[in-house]
Amino acid sequence: MEILYYALVGIVALLIGVVCTLIVQKSLARSRAKLIIDEANRDAETIKKNKLLEAREEELKILAEAEKQANNRLAKVQTAEARQKQRELQLNQQQSDNQRQRNEIEATKANLEAQQNVVEQKQLELDKLHLIAQEELEHISGLSSEEAKEKLIESLKDEAKTAAASYINDIMDEAKMTANKEAKRIVVQSIQRVATETAIENSVTVFHIDSDEIKGRIIGREGRNIRALEAATGIEIIVDDTPEAIVLSGFDPVRREIARLALHQLVADGRIHPARIEEVVAKVRRQIEEEIIETGKRTAIDLGIHGLHPDLIRLVGKMKYRSSYGQNLLQHARETANLCAIMASELGLNPKKARRAGLLHDIGKVPDEDPELPHAIYGMKLAEKYKEKPEICNAIGAHHDEIEQTTLLAPIVQVCDAISGARPGARREIVEAYIKRLNDLEQLALSYPGVIKTYAIQAGRELRVIVGADKIDDVETEKLSAEIARRIQDEMTYPGQVKITVIRETRSVSFAK
Q1: What pLDDT score does 332 carry?
Q2: 28 vs 393: CA distance, rounded Å
Q3: Are the beta carbons of 398 and 370 closer than 8 angstroms?
Q4: CA–CA separation, 129 vs 107, rounded Å?
Q5: pTM of the predicted model as reported, rounded to 2 decimal places
Q6: 439, 438, 419, 446: which is closest to 343 by C-alpha?
């Protein structure tokens, strides 16, 4: 029983402990819930305050933007009002000006009417005086009006005959001047109908290599390869510090081309030694010779020239590798041939002979030997040697006035040779002389009163002159242009022609605010 009692007491005590524990946990839960609720309330208050602040800031922004827009609109309105006031002032000024002009016109009109009345009165007086004078003249001369008219007509006829004779003399003089102009027209037309190119040749050729290691192979052991190459080609080979480049120097362009092609084949092949150099140079020389002949044949075919001697064809082909004052000789010969044909056609002569003479006129510049004769005389002797016709030989020899011109082809070849050599860009011009010519052009135009600025453009082929609008009128600009052109023709030397443009302008600048 005691054991049961103690057991019950323990169970009761355990139940009491559980109950107490539950009561304590419930109390703790209530406290925690209260804390959570308080924290939630605090967070809600904080969020509420933040939202209120954000709403207030947004409100301030909206108010500022609205105020800014209102200020902008106000500024635009004020600007528009200012413009409107300015326009009103301008309109008022225009109205006053118009009214003043109307008053001036009315005053001028009244003045003209008064002057017209005076003129009418004077006319009436003159008519009366004329009648009185006619009656007195008839009385003094004893001739009627009809008889006086007949005598006057006879006198006028004599004067007309004299004037007609003078007019005929003027026409004859003008015809002589027109002949000179017609010749110039033919020359200009011939120039315009030929397409021209510019070709420049130098006395050196630059041979490019892939790397500087090849320079040592080209020089060879103790320089034997470069000596063999110079001896075989007759060209000086300069190997210096220039990166990836070797300079071939010589005045004979055919030899330079042979040296360049031989070097190219040797470098590409890789075998560079004296025996190989001599073999390659000989092979390239044969190729160049074949190309020269082929170029001569192709040129003759392109120009429609037949029956040339093979040696003449070869000389024509050699012109490709020769230059004169920087102008390629073959291109110059082709251009001269075409100009000669066109000019001969204009003058009613044989264009085929003219083209042939134009092509061959400079063959004396590409001789196989070194003659002591001028190139025109030597070219004439070559043409005679290869059985060219006498008029063509004369045209070749006389194109620099070394011999007398005996045919009409000779002056044509001479003129066309000058045209081809003197056209702009055909031949090189020393830089100092070129700059001096441009400065002389500008200074010549600046020497006239009223000229503000001058510009020589397009390599000196056009001169633009700017004059003051308050110093020179439109009529004087034309006179100024002609006067500058005349002075340039008389005082300066230049290729081609120079275009003079006189510019006169008036500028009015205003600012809208």
Answers
A1: 86
A2: 137
A3: no
A4: 33
A5: 0.44
A6: 419
Name the band, by pLDDT with cuts 50, 70 and 90, for residue 200: very low
As a whole number of angstroms, the distance between CA 388 and CA 317 comes to 18
Q: The dihedral of CA 442, 443, 447, 451: what is its sign?
A: positive
Mean pLDDT of the region 79-89: 87
From residue 120, give the alpha-carbon distance in Å to each of 106, 112, 117, 168, 403: 21, 12, 5, 44, 80
CA distance 165 to 159: 10
Sheet holding 204-208, edge to edge: 204-208, 245-249, 236-238
Which tokens sit at 448? 């006239």
Q: Looking at residues 446-465, what average pLDDT do you find?
A: 85
C-beta separation of 379 from 356 below 8 A: no
The pLDDT tens digits of the residues spanning 22-40 come to: 888 888 888 888 888 888 8
Spatial separation of the C-alpha atoms in residues 223 and 231, rounded to whole Å: 12
The token duo for 423 is: 């056209």
Please give, one letter per residue, the 3-state secondary structure of 40-103.
Answer: HHHHHHHHHHHHHHHHHHHHHHHHHHHHHHHHHHHHHHHHHHHHHHHHHHHHHHHHHHHHHHHH
Question: Where does residue 222 fall: left (phi above 0), alpha (psi -120 to 50 degrees), or beta otherwise?
Answer: left
Digit-coded pLDDT (tens) for 139-188: 665 666 676 677 767 777 767 766 665 666 666 666 666 656 666 566 55
Q: Coil, strand, or helix at residue 397?
A: helix
